[in-house]
Amino acid sequence: MTRSNNHELSTAKSSALMPKKTKSKMKAVSIIFLSLWILSLVVFGLEIFFFVINPVTKNAMNSEIQVRITLATIGFGIVTFILLLASGFIHLFKKIHAWAIVLVLSCLLIFGAVGTVLALRAYTLVNKVPQTVSFTGQEVFDAVNKYRKDNGVGEIKLDDRLCNNLAQREIDIEAGMKEGIAHKNLDEWYKKYVPQNIFVSEDADNNTTIEGVIKDWDSSPGHRLSILDPKAKIGCSYAANNWAVIEIGYVAYTPKKTVVSQTPTPNPNDPNRIVQCSISATCGGGIRDVTASECDKITCCQTASGWIVTSKDNCNQTQKSSQTSNCISGWEDYRTNAIKTCNISLSTNDYATYQSCMDNVGKTANAGIAKCSQ
């Protein structure tokens, strides 16, 4: 047998092992896997852009869902890459030898192990990142000062004495809302962390934006009075889980140094003497150590949004404002209903009666509204 015959025989055997149609199919399969792998890279790039870079969309979806989507894309990319390598090896060697199968399986094992480790590591790192919020405590503080300034009230200054364990206040407030308890554990926090000579008012709100928080407080008479209190000079704020918490207050009196060797007898008529001021259970209950004059001025006040502890002057102003608003609203309702009665004249084309009716309604409603403000 000649060398030419040997070459023809070898070619024939090779063709028998890998026909042309099989080669074409393997090439098409490799192209499909390559396309899928490139697609996974493109999708992964888009996820990085929308979930991490773009400020508009990065917080639009729950972070855990984002992680699961990203890990699914990474897993899909690893699988398609492994299949691409496998098909490439088969297409490259054209003949399936035992060592080639071992090599392909080894690559599958290595890439699968590496991909699994990277995916688990990414999931662990993402879960270690604290939950993102739409705003920070500093942004709450700045927004409150801007709100006070826009309403002609002086800004408050940061006071560390009101920042003690403020993160726990957010946790208690959030838990209290689920239990139907407003400002849960406020008295306990006040007694434990705030000096007795500081009067504090607490405001909290849950919203996705700082603008929404300020709008909610502005629409609540109680919160509005608290935040716009002109006596308030100090404060501290905290934000987490879309909750905004701010403590606003002022120093009610300056503690005096006492001499150990002397025990002065307190003057019962001294307005600056410290007394235990009882807070009504309607406003949360508890006892606050304040000056006698301060205790005489505060009261448990009923507002449109609920009961709050505030000064008697502020309470009277709030209630008068609420009464005026209700009075005006009542006359506006009268105007609306009376106009409906006037419109009946139009059905008979009696325009003179209609016009007279409208004039009387307008005069009566305007006179009633004017009396509301007196």
Question: Any overview of this molecule?
Answer:
It is built from twelve helices and eight strands. It has helices spanning 3-17, 20-53, 63-93, 98-128, 137-150, 166-179, 186-193, 210-218, 221-227, 292-297, 312-342, 351-372, and strands spanning 157-158, 198-206, 234-240, 243-251, 274-278, 287-291, 298-303, 306-311. Helix 2 packs antiparallel against helix 3. The longest helix has 34 residues, at 20-53.
Question: What would the keywords be for this entry?
Answer:
374 residues, alpha+beta, two-stranded antiparallel ribbon, 12 helices, 59% helix, 13% strand
Topology, please?
Layout: H1 3-17, H2 20-53, H3 63-93, H4 98-128, H5 137-150, E1 157-158, H6 166-179, H7 186-193, E2 198-206, H8 210-218, H9 221-227, E3 234-240, E4 243-251, E5 274-278, E6 287-291, H10 292-297, E7 298-303, E8 306-311, H11 312-342, H12 351-372
Parallel strand pairs: 1-3
Antiparallel strand pairs: 2-4, 3-4, 5-6, 7-8
Helix pairs in contact: 2-3, 3-4, 11-12
